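step: validate -> pass
step: tokenize input -> pass
step: predict -> running
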Amino acid sequence: MAAKAPREYTDPSVYDSHAKDFQSKALPSGQAEWIERASQVAQIFAQDAPKRDIENKSPAAEVSLLKASGLLKVLGPKEYGGGGEAWDTGYKVIREVAKGDGSLGMLLGYHLLWSTTANVVGTEDQARSVQKVITEQNLFIGGAVNPRDSDLKITSDGDEIVFNGFKNFNTGGVVSDLTVLEGVLEGTEDHIFTFVNTRQDGMQFAHNWDSIGLRLTESGSVRITNIRVPWTDALGWDSATKRPLPHILSIPFATLLLPTIQLVFSNFYAGIALGALDAAAAYTTQHTRAWPFGGDNKDRPTDEFYILERYGAWHAHLLAAAALLDRAGAQVAAVYREGGQHGSSLLSDVINGSTPAGATREAITAARRGELAALVVSGKVVSTDVALEVTAGIFEALGARATGKKYGFDRFWRDVRTHTLHDPVAYKRRELGRWKLLGEAAEATWYT
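step: predict -> pass
step: emit ->
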């Protein structure tokens, strides 16, 4: 791996006034207040998003503002200083931030997903410990978990496990506080997840993220060399027997990270498209000129039939996509509740909350998991299609001058196009076809 010199980091001081304003206020309370906080952050990011996209600096300032805003804590347990919200709120917050900057919506989404890891594949004690550290210290989480690469190799050495290997993608890693590692224990087919400090010699970033879109996500490659972790930090494993705990890892609940993150993707796709439509509408009303050679000439672009028709269609399709994503988000939250959890926090820890009768991990059956996955996949198909259509199509209603780099309208399409290649949507459509025609739920995989 040929490492490049680190890119220049953005300066957190540029957001000092906004950070101080957020820090002077209490955390939001309730879904509406969290969405409003996310909207405020999105508006700040939107002001200079085209400029930051061109500069392509490492997003230290942007992550710092996410921390100051409290958004990293939206799912965290209240007793540790978090928002105590469930995933239905988390998804809407991700979508809102993505309206202002797709890269930051993606980073927030991945952070919330990785923050959930211990709750899904760890013991209750591990989940409490991880949530306490992440929430109280307001840490930002990255993840070196790319299933298309070879698994990291894990060896056992006394009371420790040792990670070695390479990952092509590690979203947010360069600017993260903690990194989720995942690999296979040598001599077995058993996977282990754990959290490690990002800033250590064994974490060697290549600083090679240079794709056409999502340029501020720092999703470049990383080499892991002799990173040592106590066996007690192996999530869902018995540190005495050095074996996975079947009641944790051998049930459908342990696979929930996959539909959870797939819906993260869909929400920042939709958020990017909604942001594109808002930005395009503002430009059209202020700068676009009516076409004078159509035979039915109008004085204003907002009287042009084709412009009105395009905006009407885009608006309708995005509203429909958002409604589907909200329905799926409500079901994700419901499944976590049925499994005895609430967002990223243990349900029993939620102040004034109560555990539904029979709410345990074992309550989530393969059929329930399959039903959820089908709904999530539906959202993935629709959000992918509409986001690509809107972000490419807005130029039809803007005019040639809007292609100027200073406006940055191309960033919306580049962001969506980049991440929608993460896993082929054609396979999602096939999964839904089998679900509809044959009643077959998709097999739980690293991408389903």
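step: describe -> Residues 347-354 have pLDDT under 50 and may be disordered.
step: cleanup -> pass
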